[in-house]
Amino acid sequence: MGCRDVHAATVLAFLSGTASVAGLLAAVLLPNWRQMRLYTFNKNERNVTVYTGLWIKCARFDGSRDCVIYDPQWYTAVDQLDLRVLQFALPLSMLTAVSALFLCLIGMCNTAFVSTVPNVKLAKCLVNSAGCHLVAGLLFLLACAICLTPSIWVIFYNNYLNRKYEPVFSFDISVFIAIASAGGLFFTSVLLFLWYCACKSLPSPFWQPLYSHAPSMHSYASQPYSARSRLSAIEIDIPVVTHAS
């Protein structure tokens, strides 16, 4: 595996990162972070389930899909600490992951479309695809940490609410989507790190292009004096004399 070609590892990492960002977006928008189930002992009434999201809250009767109570201003009055933290953590994680995707795409485009022998005058301004993928892997890992920590905290905070009030709280599908998306971000970063480990033995610096100078500049370099000194005196500047018959 080399750095000068677009490999399946980088393409798979880009697709995995895109799917993870899509999962984060779904987790952010779905109103299914926590359920609060309210029971009634009146036979003429139905139980109510309150679905709590990061931005909206919806209350439904059992067997109904319509919201009896719909609160689109819930995001301004969130009274649960874990959901308030997620309101800031998940968009930040998405922004970090999107930046990593953009950087990964720059690295792949640089590998696919840039000439292997760049202009000497522009060599110091070019971007090394290996460096792009390494920084993208670090950003994916950071996005994973930002997303995973508060998502797991929801589970423990849900148990805290059940102990403090009544056992009517349960975490919903958005928690699993966010954790799975964090796992996808971690898998993406591992793929990029593995790809970079196959390229780090190259002599180019961290952020410089793979060819910092054109190969023609090195083709005619003279041998060092120590190498020439090992030649015998007979082999140095001995003219060849031919005699005509």
Automatic annotation (TrEMBL):
Protein keywords: Cell junction, Membrane, Tight junction, Transmembrane, Transmembrane helix
Lineage of the species this protein comes from: Eukaryota, Metazoa, Chordata, Craniata, Vertebrata
Signal peptide: none
Keyword Membrane: yes
Family per record: Belongs to the claudin family.
Subcellular location: Cell junction, Tight junction; Membrane
Gene Ontology terms: cellular component: bicellular tight junction; plasma membrane
Topology of the protein relative to the lipid bilayer: Multi-pass membrane protein
Membrane-spanning segments: 6-30, 88-114, 134-156, 168-196
InterPro entries, per database record: Claudin12, Claudin_CS
Protein's recorded name: CLD12 protein
Record flagged with keyword Transmembrane helix: yes
